[in-house]
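task queued by scheduler; priority normal; single chain, no ligands, no partner chains; default sampling; output format set to C-alpha cells
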Amino acid sequence: MVSNNVECTALCDKFVCTKKPPALKIRRQGNRELVWCTWIDEECDQGWCVHSKCAIRKLTQDGKCKQITEPVIKEVHVRLDEPYPDAMPKDIAKKFKLR
C-alpha cells in the first residue's frame, strides 16, 4: 500500500514538544531555520522524538503526518423557472394577520 503521508516537521504550527518545559528552540543558521532540542542539545528529530506530538492527532507511528482531507461540499442547484412554494398556507397566514 502506497502512502502519501509527508514527513513531520517541527516548523508545523500543529507540532508540540511535550517535554516540560518545552525543549524546542528555533535557531537561524544563515538563511535557514534550524529546529534545536535544548534537552539533548542537538537538532530536533521532529516526528521521531518520543516527546513530539501533533495537536490535531495526525502523527503516525512512523513519524509522518496523515494527509488532512478537506470536507466535501455538495453543490445545490436551484432552478429559477420553478415557482417558489408559499411559506405558509393562506388560511394560516390570515390568522396571523388578524392578531
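post-processing summary
- The radius of gyration is 27 Å.
- The longest helix spans residues 90-98.
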